[in-house]
Amino acid sequence: MHESAFQILINALLANNLVLAMFLGLCPFLGVSGRLETAFPMGVATTFVMLVASLCAYGLNILLTAFDLEFLRLISYIVIIASAVQLVEMVLKKYSPGLFRALGIYLPLITTNCAVLGVALFQTSRDYDFVQSVTFAIGGGAGFTLALVLMASVRERLQLSNVPDVAQGTALSLMLAGILSLAFMGFAGLGG
Amino acid sequence: MSTAAPRTWDEFMEGIWRQNPVFVMALGMCPMLAVTVSAVNALSMGVATAFVLICSCGLVSLMRKMVPKEVRIATYIVIIATFVTVVDYVIQAVSLALYDALGAFIQLIVVNCIILGRAEAHASKNPPWPAMVNAAGMSVGFAIGLLALGVVREILGAGTLFGVSLFGADFQPWVIMLLPPGGFFVLGGWLLLFSWIERRKQRRVASEVAQHA
Predict the structure, then answer these.
(1) Which residues span the domain enclosing A118?
(2) Looking at the 3D structure of chain A, how many domains does it have?
(3) Domain-located, residue A190
(4) Residue extents of the structural domains in chain B
(5) Contact A37, A69 (CB under 8 A)
(6) pTM for this model (two decimals)
(7) Is ipTM > 0.85 here?
């Protein structure tokens, strides 16, 4: 079935949200969602890496298929993503050192963000053409940012409320993620 | 050699209990939640991850003196990606049904934080044998976590365990447990249980100390 670019965008953004429906990129989702000021830039940085990785992966896949080297796909994708992250890191360090420090260890960890590799792998396995790949990457990145920002806003509020000691930390975040994920299930079928 | 055995055993148990990657360190969440809709999937994912983890930790540890510090992460990633490619093709050859069920998550083992974390924190500083033992312990710990999630979700969501029906025909499956929110809730529940046990232990230790004082 040929999906239109708009369907792919809506699907990746809401109905099949990378974080809340496909469980990709949970580490940064749980790690950096403590504060809104870091959550949003993190989402944007990840989206950018996703876009670059998706573009490169598209070109590379044509090359690999042409030379019959599909078994190298995984290794070369990972190398591409690592280089893209390095690029983002250098740009941020130069233009926004404060943000660079705030993101800390989570910036290089974008390399091991499964959402980024997931986008590259899914677009390959679903045989997306160029436009579809780019929309998928943008939609996926926007969806990741949306989930991150939502989660950060809820958690900022939660700091003011009285939570039992036992539930503090990851357990509480997971329960929250579950509720958010329930809400996102309401979008199922929206992308057609 | 009499002291070597218990040390190795400690090394092994470390990953299963005290530093359990799932319940204590909260690593490797993504494959964890995505593939645990049934106990069989969970177990196969555990085995695949174990293979990659043990092999790459062994190799990383063998190469630890050759790799310059600046490019170590890149080297580790390439090593891990190589073993994942192997696992990917093996599973595809052995069972196509399983390959379809696990989908992209076999390839996504590459970005499982547990593996890179172990390579960086342990294997790069230790000789091959302890590194592999530690990796084996970690993978057993991870597999236990996967199974704990997979079993609960399969029993509640489908009323079966390893495909065998448990409650008979008139059981109403709790489908939400198989859907994404269920994964979050079950894992959250397990973490709650673990932190409760941990807290009780701390309180007991504290009260014992108070009695002795």
Answers:
(1) 5-185
(2) 1
(3) no
(4) 4-163+173-212
(5) no
(6) 0.82
(7) no
